[in-house]
Write a structure and sequence with these properties.
By secondary structure, this protein is α+β, with helices and mostly antiparallel strands. It contains four helices and 16 strands.
C-alpha cells in the first residue's frame, strides 16, 4: 500500500505508546518489527516517532512529569475534521475529556478522552500530518478493535460523535460484533466486540491495535527473547492467526498474520 495521505473521518489514524521505559521500548520495538526509533523531540516534550521504511508508523512518550507517570499502554487516535466539535460533544454523550484539543505545530491537533464505556483513546485533526504511513503491511497496523461491556452504548457513541457507519457482523450472546465501514469504499476499518461475557472484572474496556507480521509464531518467539511475554494464543481464526503479547514494560498489543 502506498504512503497514506488521508484517513476517513472516524477512522483509526495513529497509535502511540505511553511507556515507563523509553529506552527499553525503543529498542524492543525496533528489534521486533524492524522499525527505526527516531530521537525524542525537545519541542514536543520528549515525544518520539517510530519509522517503518523511513516513514512514521507510531509514536512514543515517557512519563510526563512526576504527577503523570506512564501507564504502559498503546493508544489509538480517530481522525476528525472538527476536533473542537468532537470535544464539545463528548460530555453530552457520556464521555470524559482527559486532555483538551492542543495544536502540535502545523502537524495537527490532538486530544485524549475516555469513551462512555471506559476505554481511553484520542482524536486527531490532521494538518500536515495525516497519521500512520501504511496499514496492512508487515510491521504496520493490521486491525483496531474495541472490547466493551456496553456494545450498544459504544456503537451509539461512535456513530454520534465520529459519524461512524457500522455493520453488525454477529448478534448472538456467543459473538456480538460490529465493524466500522469506510463510507466511500465500504472497507472494514475497525471492530467493536461485546466483551461483557468474558472481560475480567479488573480489566476496563479498551482499544487494541493488531500489528501485521509475517509469522505470528516467530514474532511471539521474538517477543519472548526480547523480554516481553505471551498473554494469549497463538490462535487460528477466520481472520488469520493471532496472539496477544506484552512488551517488557507491560504494554499489551496484538499480532496478526492475515489469512492467505
Amino acid at each position: 500500500m502506498p504512503n497514506i495521505d488521508h484517513f476517513s473521518v472516524g477512522a483509526p489514524c495513529w497509535v502511540d505508546l505511553w511507556t515507563s521505559d523509553v529506552e527499553g521500548s525503543r529498542a524492543f520495538y525496533a528489534q521486533l518489527f524492524g522499525w527505526e526509533a527516531m530521537e525524542p523531540s525537545e519541542e514536543f516534550g520528549g515525544y518520539f516517532m517510530f519509522h517503518r521504511d523511513g516513514l512514521p508508523i507510531a509514536g512514543g512518550m515517557g512519563d510526563m512529569g512526576p504527577d503523570m507517570p506512564a501507564n504502559d499502554t498503546w493508544k489509538i487516535y480517530l481522525s476528525t475534521d472538527d476536533i473542537a466539535g468532537v470535544a464539545a460533544s463528548l460530555g453530552a454523550h457520556g464521555a470524559e475529556v482527559q486532555a483538551p484539543p492542543m495544536s502540535v505545530a502545523d502537524l495537527g491537533q490532538n486530544m485524549v478522552f475516555v469513551d462512555p464505556t471506559g476505554a481511553h483513546l484520542g482524536a486527531w485533526q490532521p494538518g500536515t500530518f495525516p497519521g500512520c504511513s501504511s496499514l496492512n503491511e508487515h510491521g504496520a497496523p493490521s486491525w483496531f478493535e474495541l472490547f466493551t461491556r456496553d456494545f450498544a452504548g459504544a456503537l451509539d457513541f461512535y456513530r454520534s460523535v465520529f459519524s461512524w457507519k457500522t455493520e453488525i457482523e454477529g448478534d448472538t450472546d456467543e459473538f456480538r460484533y460490529a465493524t466500522l465501514r469506510d463510507p466511500d469504499s465500504g472497507d472494514q476499518l475497525a471492530g467493536v466486540m461485546d466483551a461483557s461475557a468474558f472481560l475480567p472484572e479488573d480489566v476496563p474496556a479498551h482499544w487494541s491495535v493488531y500489528w501485521d507480521v509475517e509469522s505470528v509464531d516467530a514474532a511471539v518467539s521474538r517477543v519472548n527473547t526480547l523480554g516481553g511475554a505471551l498473554v494469549d494464543g497463538p490462535t487460528d481464526t477466520p481472520y488469520g492467526r493471532m496472539a496477544t503479547v506484552t512488551d517488557p514494560a507491560g504494554a499489551m498489543f496484538k499480532l496478526r498474520t492475515p489469512p492467505a
